[in-house]
Write a structure and sequence with these properties.
The chain has about 240 residues and is an alpha/beta fold. It has 8 helices and 10 strands. The two termini are about 30 Å apart.
C-alpha cells in the first residue's frame, strides 16, 4: 500500500469538545481504493476522529487533505461534495420517510440523474428493492443499515467512513454488508475507513487495522492476528 497515492491524509490532527481535548497529533492516511480499520476501547476517540474528518467537529490543529485538497476548514456538505461519505453509529435515517425518500435525500447532488443513481446503487443492495415503499423506521436493524449504506453511496463518493456498522445486526446481514463493501472497493474503487468492534467483519473488509488509544494511533494489528483474541486484547482491549 505504501506505493499508492494517498486519497485521504491527516497530519497532526487535534480536536475535542470545548476545553476537553480528545485527539492528539494524529497522523493517518488512506490510499486510493484502500480500506483501513480502526479498533479501540470505547471512549478512546474513534467516533470523535470520524466526526472531525467529516467536519461535524472542528479541528483545533493539524490538516486534513482529500485528493490533495486541504479540507480542514470546509463544512460537512462541502466535504460531501468532494467525495467524502459518512454512515454514523445509529445510521441517521429519517424514520418517517420511506426508504425511497431516504435515498432521494442521498441523491441530492446527482440532480436530474437521481433516479438513475438510485437504480445503480440498488444493484448492490437487492434486499432493499422490495422495501422502497416502507418507512425507514419500520425496517429491521440490518435493513436500516443497508439503507444507510445505500444512501451514503448514491452520490458515488471516493471514500466512505463507517462507525460501528454491525452493531445490533443479525449475522446474515453482517456477512452481506461485508461482501457488498468488498465488491464496492473492487468495482468502484471505493476507499473505506471502518470503526468496528466485530473482529471477523473488520478482518473481512480491511486491508490493515490500526489501534487507537487515548486519542492517538498507537500501532497496527496484522490481519492474521485478528483471530488471536489474546493478541487483539493486548493491542486494543477489544474482545469478540
Amino acid at each position: 500500500m505504501s506505493d499508492m497515492t494517498n486519497l485521504l491524509e491527516v497530519k497532526g490532527l487535534r480536536a475535542g469538545y470545548g476545553s476537553i481535548p480528545v485527539l492528539f497529533n494524529m497522523d493517518f492516511s488512506v490510499p486510493e481504493g484502500a480500506s483501513v480499520g480502526i479498533l479501540g476501547h470505547n471512549g478512546m476517540g474513534k467516533t470523535t476522529f470520524l466526526k472531525t474528518l467529516i467536519g461535524a467537529l472542528k479541528a483545533t490543529a493539524g490538516e486534513i487533505t482529500l485528493a490533495g485538497e486541504d479540507i480542514t476548514h470546509l463544512k460537512p456538505h462541502e466535504r460531501a461534495r468532494r467525495g467524502l461519505a459518512y454512515v454514523p453509529q445509529g445510521r441517521g435515517l429519517f424514520s418517517t420517510l420511506t426508504s425511497y425518500e431516504n435515498l432521494r435525500l442521498g441523491a441530492y447532488k446527482t440532480g436530474e440523474n437521481a433516479a438513475s443513481a438510485i437504480d445503480d446503487t440498488l444493484k448492490y443492495f437487492p434486499r432493499l428493492e422490495r422495501l422502497m415503499d416502507r418507512q425507514g423506521g419500520s425496517l429491521s436493524g440490518g435493513e436500516q443499515q443497508l439503507l444507510a449504506l445505500a444512501r451514503a453511496l448514491i452520490g458515488n463518493p471516493t471514500i466512505l467512513l463507517l462507525d460501528e456498522p454491525t452493531e445490533g445486526i443479525q449475522p446474515s446481514i453482517i456477512e452481506e454488508i461485508a461482501e457488498t463493501l468488498v465488491a464496492l472497493r473492487s468495482e468502484r474503487g471505493l476507499a473505506i475507513v471502518l470503526v468496528e468492534q466485530n473482529l471477523d467483519f473488520i478482518a473481512a473488509v480491511s486491508e490493515k487495522v490500526l489501534v487507537i488509544r487515548r486519542g492517538q494511533f498507537v500501532g497496527e494489528i496484522p490481519r492474521e492476528h485478528l483471530t488471536d483474541l489474546d493478541i487483539v486484547s493486548q493491542y486494543a482491549g477489544v474482545h469478540a
